[in-house]
Each structure stands twice: as structure tokens, then as C-alpha cells.
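User: Sequence in, structure out. Go.
Assistant: Echoing your sequence, followed by the C-alpha cells.
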Amino acid sequence: MPPAPTAPLRFETQPEAIPLGFLQDCRAWVEVDEGAITHNTRLLRQRIGPHVKLMAVVKANGYGHGDGATAKAARAGGADAFAVASLAEAIGLRHQGLQEPILVLGHMGQVDEAQACLRWRFLPTISTLDQGQLFHAVASRSGACLPVHVNLDTGMARLGVPWQEGVALIQALRNLDGLQVEGIYSHLAAADAVDPSLTQRQQQRFDHVLASLTNGQPTRLCCHLANSAATMADSRLHYDMVRVGLALYGHAPAEHLEGILPLRPAMAVRARVAILKTVPAGTGVSYDHRYHTKRPSRLAVVAIGYADGVPRLLSGRMGVLHRGHWLPQVGTITMDQLMVDATNHPQLHGGAVVTVLGSDGTRSIRPCQWSQACGTIPWDILSGFSSRLPRLNAAHSIRQGDQLAIN
């Protein structure tokens, strides 16, 4: 006789909310120093002076730091406006209480996107006349006039109207009563290069469009060209506003720009040691046994992997810090774990917190070290950390030995 079907589980009460202290047991997390972001914004404000506005670029979840927290910290440091890549990112900032101007850098060409820009007071980027006519039609039906910024392609071959056609587009947009052309901008392709020739060529094209629009008279448009590198390197690129991203988070965009401003890195990534094991010499470690121990070794399994944002390309080319000591990573980095050689560090124990990226004591691991090893750029590293890593405010997390207490 078949067994009777099992009755579904029933709960008399709702499960208890997870207490904040549970975060002490997180396997891995990102610590964000919001004070550093405020500090960096103030430095950048001093760099540009009182007559230039500062737009903080907080796309891609604030370069991995958390967009809302980053935006509020930048606002505290003097940011005037914000830039994001998508409509969803912009709406997310409004939901988090940001009321300042928000420029959407990405392309929008749908009716519901235009309606959202009106509803939420976003600044859309216009690159084509068709796009402008769509936004004009939506705004006109609402009896509104929508401010927009025009993107000139002066050398990226990406979004934006070709600079040779910029004047014609702006004049056509000015004839649409549902739109107000408030700003004009372009994106520099190589502002972080030692050789300034490409940047100078782009600036000449940008200036040519501005001069043609105004016949040499001062423009009423908000003109912006400079990214972090240009903001740091050359005040002639500042115009009415600068758009800063990487520098906001505490990193110079290029080696030759290091030291221009005393920026403070805002991110640290930490993880816990899951277990330790002692293995004999000649033991193969991780997938494919690409690494074999050369001596009896004490291996620590750290609970973070490539699904969290540690590039698999770093296998055998990185390490972690514990109490200021460097522990080399060995074997192939896996989806959820990586292994480090703790043979020379007997004080490491299960549950200990190690620094994967950031500072620990007097030593630090920087995003540029990872990016150089992987053949990529720091932007890629910072924005690559998974959403499954909690973002904790460094001011509220106090490391006590190998424990993390949450205030």
C-alpha cells in the first residue's frame, strides 16, 4: 500500500526577520568608505573651482560601490548633478531620495522612456532627429517642455551625432517647442593617455560646433567634455561642467595622473576563511591541477570566487592580506572559493577575515594591480563585483581582530 501523501508544512508564525548581526557571518562583502567619496568629491570641486559644476557618474551601481550611497556621499562633497547609463538606474536614484538633475547617458528611443523622463524629471541624451521628434511629441502632448542634452560624437564612434552634423541637429531641435536644448557634451576617447593629440583633436571639433552655434558669442548651453582624467589633467577641458567617475571612487585614471590629487580609495573587498587543511608535497590544487604544492602545505579555502567578481584570470597571480601579511593564491579560482597558501602564516584560522582588495594595515591591494594582471582596466574590476556581495558602509563596520561587528 503506497504511503499517505505528506501534508504541506505549515507555519504558525512568520519567520523572524534576519537580525543585522547576521551580517557578521557573511562569507564575503564589499566595504564602502562613503567618507572617502565625499573627500574625493571635495578635492575635485576644489580642482574645478566655484564656477564649474560637477556631475558625479554613478552608473553601474556606482562603479560597484552602490549607486544611492555613492550619490549621497558625492552630494555631501559638492556634486551638483548625477549621470547614469539607463532609465532604470535613474529611477532607482529617485527612489533613494535623490532630487538633483540626473542625465541619462544611454540611448532612449521609446515612448514610455520619454514619458518616464517627464514624470521623473530626467535629462535625456539626444543623438538623432528622430529621437528628438519622439521626445518632443510626448512632451507636447503633456503640455510640457523637456530639457535635453545633445551628445556630439567627436571621436568615439559610439553614441552621439557626428560632430559635423551637430549644428544642424541642434538647430532642428530648437524648432521643436516640446524640447529645450539645455546642454551639449561629448566623450573623450583617450583623456588618460600621455599623448594629448587625440584629446586636442576632439576638443577642436567640440569648440568648432560651439562657435558655429553662437557666432563667437557666449553660449547659454551647459557644455561638458571632461571625464576624470581630463578634470585632473587640464582645466581648459572643464567648460561649464565636468563628469567624474573613477576619481570619485579614489583612483587616478592613469599612472601619470597619480599624485595630482590625494584621492582615497573607497572600496575594500573582504572574505572569510572557510576551512584550512594540511596537504603533502605534490598535492594538486583545484580544477585541472594546474598547481601542485612544492612542500607540505597549509591551504586556506577563502569563500569568494569568480561569481563574486574575482576574475578567474587572476588564478596564481593574486593574493590576500591578513593582518598585513601577504598570502599567495594558488590553483584555479573557482566560482565560489579560492585557495591561498597559509603555510607561513600559522595564526590564520577558520572564520578569519582576509582582505581580497583594499587596505589591511600598512599594505594594500589596488584595482590597478588586478587589471594589469588581467589585461584590462580598473573600471572593469570595480564594476565587476557581484550583487550577491553585500555592500557595507565602512563607517558602520568595525573589524575587531578577525571579526566584523556591525554598528
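User: And one key feature?
Assistant: Residues 42 and 111 are 38 Å apart (CA to CA).
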